[in-house]
Give the backbone structure.
Amino acid sequence: MNAGGAPGLLAALALLALWYVARWWSIERARQATGDTRPGVLDLLTGFVTNFFDTLGIGSFAPTTAIFRLRARMPDENIPGTLNVGHALPTITEAFIFIAIVTVDFATLAGMIAASIAGAWLGAGMVARLPRRAVQLGMGVALLVAATLFLAANLEWTPAGGEALGLTGGTLAFAIAANFALGALMTLGIGLYAPCLILVSLLGLNPIAAFPIMMGSCAFLMPVGGLRFVRAGRYDLRAALGLVFGGIPAVLLAAFVVKSLPLVWLRWLVVVVVLYTSVAMLAAALRKAPAAVAAL
């Protein structure tokens, strides 16, 4: 258990989850959307698989983006919003578990979480207004970054980390600034887990300390950013509900029953799929680019 304010942090997380559900329901009720809003079987399966492996440290954004893109599940510009809206509640479930069981300095944990929330708030407002091509370009680059991080982990190029459980002074200030940027990038669809793990390892933290930091950051920032996408209508409701209802049971199964798996082959598969998706996303964005270039 984290010393100091961890119980207060968990209480705040519970209140945030209740507020998020209430606001999401209220906005959609006021919108009075027509048609079936129940998630399909494939949406539920996507939520289950991606959140199961997310709990074990793989991350959910890049695999979910690849699945949505391969299925042509929704317009590309709606993918970032669907990720942030749908994965929020499963990630809150993860954060409850890891903040409670993994020890990390509370000032480090709270500071990095607060920075990620601020980044997500600003980032979501910008991404929700971007045209399709800009989102495709941004997500294509983000997926290339994600694939590179997966490749680095597979080849053991990432830092091993130290033994510290907290940061101080200038090092803490740098970590907070970096997590602000990572929070903003989350709203474009680049997951926070892998870069946050590398960040804290480079700064000398024990890698296990990254789990409450990265899961706590995502748990607090995703509802904040997600509601901006909900208000803008820039997400797919059925797919997001599939991520929620498929994801929460998967988190509990992974955290309390499975706990760990040899994931190296899965990481290689993710590299291949994410690279393919990135190339496809960039190609879709650039197909109409010549006309735009000619106009300059």
In short: Residues 290-296 have pLDDT under 50 and may be disordered. The two ends are 57 Å apart (CA to CA). The chain has 13 helices and no strands.
